[in-house]
Design goal:
The protein has 329 residues and is α/β, with parallel strands linked by helices. The protein is built from twelve helices and eleven strands. It has two domains: 164 residues, Bordetella uptake gene, domain 1 (D-Maltodextrin-Binding Protein, domain 2), CATH 3.40.190.150; 121 residues, Periplasmic binding protein-like II (D-Maltodextrin-Binding Protein, domain 2). A six-stranded mixed β-sheet has the order 2-1-3-10-4-11, sandwiched between helices. A three-stranded parallel β-sheet has the order 7-6-8. Helix 2 packs across helix 10. The longest helix is centred in the first third of the chain and has 29 residues.
Amino acid sequence: MQAISMLRRVTLGALGALGGLLALQALAQSYPNRPVKIIVPFAAGGGPDIETRRLGPKLAEALGGAVVVENRVGAAGILAAELVTQAPADGYTLLAGSISQVVQKVLRPEAKFDPVVTFVPITKTSTTSTVLIVPADSPIKSAKELEALIRSKPGELNYGSGGIGTSAHIAGATFVGVLKLNAVHVPYRGSVELVPALLSNQIQYAFPIAGTSVPFVKAGKVRALAVTGAKRMSSLPDVPTLKELYGDDLFVQESWGGLWAPANTPGPVIQQIFIATRKALTDPELRAHYLAAGTEPELSESPEAFTRFMVAESQKWARLIQMAGVKAD
């Protein structure tokens, strides 16, 4: 009798597991049956927003459904991240995550999200440098000249960023920290405010990501002095890297973007989004748009590889933040 009871429990458990597997397969087969929303944590018109809006139609085509892009600006990306963690884990709400959320979690451990715990990282989508820029009519023609000017006017020059802990802030703080300069950080609500602030002389230089800065460089509104990548950018081949100029590896800082889903989103759905994103990023037109803006389209080998990458990035940027003396406001 006891053996029969045990057999019944085992059979019911197996049937339950099989039922769960079939349910997951059915979900993946029906996905998506309504629009997929991608939340962008940055202001409309900035590099990450433009990239996501260009990716959206190609991703929709690959998924066989609609994709909607929505901006949720606030707290340097924390607001959007916390919003997405509260969404149903069904693949219909994604975050256009980036290095900014990794940095914010380092700066603010109390934030109600964790890039690799409350999210499922799906794939990296792009990599880019930040670009050191000044107004086009500035007498400063090189990073060395900017360094000399800051030394001659300690505490008088301002540099801007899209918020505490953003890539532009870390790059600016690294420039000041490594070279032992005295300049004032001015945080704005988003990177789209940096060029207007430069042109109105509220700030004298900034390090926005390439997707935000390169269009203004090409339009002749700002001048690029250096980039923070490991190598020169194909869209700005005459602009040196800070590593070239100063020889310090701490100046090599590259920003990246990717797609994240809420934790517990079913694996088959994650895989479907990953495959669709891979297909979208092979589109020649989309890749050309990314490259023209100074952004390299880049796909992770797998969601698991993207997770490992993000863990390593968290450790790296924690060291950079400590070195640069960046603190949450």
